[in-house]
Amino acid sequence: QNSNPVTLPPADFHVALPDAVSVKALVSREDRMLVLKALERLVLPYRNLLAFDAGNVEAQMQIGIIYAKNGVYDHAIQMFEAIVAEQPENISALNNLGNAYYLKKDYGKAIGFYQKASQLMPDNANILVNIAMSYYQSGDIKRASSVFKEAVDRDESVKLHYQQFASLLAG
């Protein structure tokens, strides 16, 4: 015996598409999670080193650098701050903190960390270039020019290596 199957009445609802802002936030969050998972594979060997030697500054530094190079600045900053907490005069950690804040466009904090590094290594022209670039990005062209000139005075090759930056300051 054949009978017609019972069908449901048409649904009285509409699927509303999410707005672009919500979609962008969700995609951004998911993208960040995928990046962090991928980076965990890169930092795992260094984390293993830290499991055996919690004070291994080089392992901490490498983890921070990996995070910074991949745009995960807050994680990088945490690693560099942990180093500075143990070794307040670690020039590389101070400079890398400056780099991470520079990349986050927090030029005031970047300048502060670069200046601390420069005080500990006053002859390093590259740290001065970092300070000059931070001043430039923050809109203080006069200070940027002055600090860049100081860097060139310490190491003439800076002018050649940062020729485009020198042109920006000159013109």
List the topology elements:
Blueprint lengths: L19 H33 L4 H13 L3 H14 L4 H13 L3 H14 L4 H13 L3 H14 L2 H5 L1 H8 L1
Helix pairs in contact: 1-2, 2-3, 2-4, 3-4, 4-5, 5-6, 6-7
Protein traits:
about 170 residues, mainly alpha, elongated
Q: Could you please describe the fold and organization of this structure?
A:
The N and C termini lie far apart (92 Å). By secondary structure, this protein is mainly α. The protein is built from 9 helices and no strands. The mean pLDDT is 93. Helix 3 (73-86) runs antiparallel to helix 4 and helix 4 (91-103) packs antiparallel against helix 5 (107-120). The protein has helices spanning 20-52, 57-69, 73-86, 91-103, 107-120, 125-137, 141-154, 157-161, 163-170. Helix content is 74%, strand content 0%.
